[in-house]
Design brief:
- The chain is mainly alpha-helical.
- Helices cover 52% and strands 0% of the residues.
- It has 1 helix and no strands.
- The termini are far apart.
Length: 48
């Protein structure tokens, strides 16, 4: 029974990560960190 709960928690966490990436992409952020897109000053929303 505990393994079913663990699998469910992992699935929910994975879905949350995917949902955030989709939301960031739609907002134009792309989910990049400051180091990978020219620094935070180059793109105001970078890494937020």
């Amino acid at each position: 029974m505990i393994d079913v709960i663990i699998v469910a928690l992992v699935a929910v966490a994975a879905a949350a990560v995917v949902w955030k990436k989709i939301k960031d992409h739609k907002a134009g952020r792309g989910g990049c960190g400051c180091g990978s897109c020219g620094g935070c000053s180059a793109r105001g929303n970078c890494g937020k």
